[in-house]
Amino acid sequence: MALGNFPTPVERIDASGERLAGELWIKRDDLTASPLGGNKVRALEFLLADLAPGEEVLTAGGEGSTHVLTTATYVRALGGSTRAVRWRHEMNPSALRVAARAREIASVVTAAGPVSGLLRAHAARARAGRWIPPGGTSPLGMLGHVNAALELAEQVARGEMPMPARVVLPVGSGGTAAGLALGFAIAGMGTVVAGARVAPRIAAGRMRVLALAWRARRYLRTLAGEPIPAADPSRLEIIHSVYAGAYGRALPGAEAPASMLFRATGLALDGTYSAKAFSAAVQLAASRTGCTLFWNTFDGRSA
């Protein structure tokens, strides 16, 4: 189901007068679609491809989940309805706004925490017309992020940006990082996926992302009927230093680089995901050689 407008642009961040060291670019996945973009649109193109009018979709996520909001937005646009099981976590201003918008367009129940939330979602699946897991992270949904990696490879080949030494993005449910790692392997790119962990290690650790990439490769190999290169474990890095101790908790010190990006580009970041990842991208651009690409997964229009 064509929901997005691709390719999304790549731009060098021009921060004249700012304290920005190294070569830093941005991939504008905030522009994947209208009225609401972000990285989740890529997965939803596959996950909602055969949605029938009137069909109900069940999904789950944190109380401030952009996945829940994006899913409900496009399910409604396609004539369906969304039930969402959410769970409480620390909230920041952008997460509060996302949560409020999701309540307007989805039928929402809220659990005390992720374990009870996932148990409630599992119990509700028996009555659901269609189940989409948290973050849209499934072998089918990850095909959208494999495509994203191939899209970037084409942009590099056209000379729109240099080959990035690393791509920095937030890692929550892990599907975007896993799909990019697999896609870069298919494209023959040596780019490192540097995931800024924004969720507990059990959901966003390195072994979890590698396992997801393996599942996506197996699924794609079955569909294609031909060999598929494996994601290179040496080209996946998880950055733990920006987590801040809890999902949804704003990272102390991330406000300064986020404000710098806003002054340079007009882009607003969120405290749960993108501000943490951009803070990591700024640090890596300053401390390592080669081009650093920040993959902006958050659409500021959602908050």
Strand order of the largest sheet: 1-2-10-7-8-9
State mean pLDDT (0 to 100 scale). Answer: 95
Number of domains: 2
What is the CATH first-level class name of the largest domain?
Alpha Beta
- Largest beta-sheet characterization: 6 strands, mixed
Number of strands: 10
- What gyration radius follows from the Cα positions, in whole Å? 18 Å
Q: Can you lay out the helices and strands and say which pair or pack?
A:
Layout: E1 10-12, E2 24-28, H1 40-47, E3 56-62, H2 66-77, E4 81-87, H3 93-105, E5 107-111, H4 114-124, E6 130-132, H5 139-157, E7 166-171, H6 175-187, E8 192-197, H7 201-204, H8 206-224, E9 236-239, H9 255-265, H10 274-287, E10 292-296
Helix pairs in contact: 1-5, 2-3, 5-6, 5-8, 6-8
Descriptive report:
The protein has a six-stranded mixed beta sheet with strand order 1-2-10-7-8-9, with helices on both faces. A four-stranded parallel beta sheet has the order 5-4-3-6. The radius of gyration is 18 Å and the shape is globular. It is built from ten helices and ten strands. α5 packs across α6, α5 packs across α8 and α6 packs across α8. α2 links the parallel β3 and β4. It has two domains: 195 residues, Rossmann fold; 97 residues, Rossmann fold, CATH 3.40.50. It starts with 9 loop residues before the first strand and ends in a 7-residue tail after the last strand. 41% of the residues lie in helices and 17% in strands. It is α/β, with parallel strands linked by helices and 303 residues long. The longest helix has 19 residues.
